[in-house]
Amino acid sequence: MLKNIHIYELPNSDEKIAFHVYEVEGKTIENKHYPHKTEQPHRHAYYEICIFVNGAGSHMIDFKTFQIKSNSIHFLTPGQVHLISREENYHGFLLVFSREFYSLGLQDEDLLMTLPFFNNNSSEPILNLNHEEFAELLDVIAHLRKDYKRDSEIREDVLKSYLHIFLLKCRYFFNRNYFDKDIIKDPTFLLVNKFRNLVERNFKEIHLVKEYADILNETPAHLNKIVKLITGVNAGEFIIKRIVLEAKRLLIYTDLSNKEISFKVNYDDPSYFSRLFRKKVGMSPSEFRIQMKQKYQQ
After folding, report:
1. C-alpha angle 198-203-205 in degrees, rounded to nearest 5
2. Mean per-residue pLDDT, 42-46
3. Sheet holding 28-29, edge to edge
4. Considering the entire predicted model, what is its pTM?
5. Residue-level pLDDT at 141
6. Of 239, 186, 246, which Cα lies nearest the Cα of 213?
7. Could you tell me whether strands 43-44 and 7-8 are parallel, antiparallel, or unpaired per DSSP bridges?
8. How many Å is the Cα radius of gyration of the chain?
9. Which CATH class name applies to 185-296?
10. pLDDT category, 1, cuts 50, 70, 90?
């Protein structure tokens, strides 16, 4: 019988802010309150940024396994399934925070939802950097850690500012490494980010490209074109991939039947959804559940 996957809340501590920074040496996290002593895949109710100084181990994110490299950053969105397997010579930092901590006080509170490495929209929410680029981000981390330990009435505002700077720099490096510069300058890039955000919020209820296009005041044909230009798949395929990802999570980490999962993602015809799943994954929902149970459950 499958167990529901554990969802971790923000670590308990004496701090009154929904933000924490930790250093990790080998397999040990410096703060005893951090809840990540698990050998099973899990997920969070908060954002987490894994900063790998020395790469040693592997990281499973939403059923894909990546080798941890030095000078790299991995981004995790609330709800994503993941498991870090650290080796002894691993060294890095963890930043954890809630959406409210980041957004409150910022004029553009939806900025977090448009970052390309968050919100389940990036096939590889990973940023590999050269030594100079990574050192630039480590400098921000050093200042952030210093103020994190400081008792000050402006401490929370300072931490928000450093986190904002860190994420903006990450966005700059991510866009430069993953996207053509001409695409980044094109106003359609912002439109695709809005589409990503809409899909993340509505994929269970809205499946049709036309409905998203109407919300964005675009034609379905144009939306398909620009989404494919930036993500590599058209808008319809992008929506389906997000739905299938959710179905995978429900299959491996809940006891819901295939029929119940079909209804959860708003497909009234379980047989049709099963055929769609097989077409996209290469196996039926039941076959996927058995395979993943053998791989990840003890």
Report:
1. 110
2. 83
3. 28-29, 19-25, 91-97, 47-54, 72-76, 126-128
4. 0.70
5. 96
6. 239
7. parallel
8. 20
9. mainly alpha
10. very low
Q: Are 43 and 81 in contact (CB under 8 A)?
A: yes
Q: How far apart are the C-alpha atoms of 252 and 286, rounded to whole Å?
A: 10
Helix (H) / strand (E) element for 196: namely: helix 188-202
Strands (E), 78-215: 82-86, 91-97, 126-128
- Who has greater pLDDT, 33 or 286? 286
Angstrom distance (rounded) from CA 280 to CA 258: 16
Alpha-carbon 50 to chain mean position: 11
Query: 65-84 burial string, b = 16+ CB within 10 Å, else e?
Result: eeebebbbbbbbbbebbbbb
H or E segment and range at residue 273? helix 270-281
Question: Which candidate, 125, 128, 154, 159, places its Cα nearest to that of 141?
Answer: 159
Could you state, in order of their start, the residue ranges of all structural domains in the chain? 7-178, 185-296
pLDDT attached to residue 122: 60
Please give the residue that has the higher pLDDT: either 178 or 276: 276
How many other C-beta atoms can be found within 10 angstroms of the C-beta atom of residue 131?
9
**What's the token pair of residue 215?**
């919300």
CATH superfamily of 7-178: Regulatory protein AraC (2.60.120.280)
Structure tokens at 237: 């395929």
Count other C-beta atoms under 10 Å from residue 8's C-beta: 16
Cα 239 to the center of its chain, rounded Å? 16
What rounded mean pLDDT belongs to the chain?
Answer: 83
- Of residues 245, 251, 244, 242, the one with CA closest to residue 291: 251
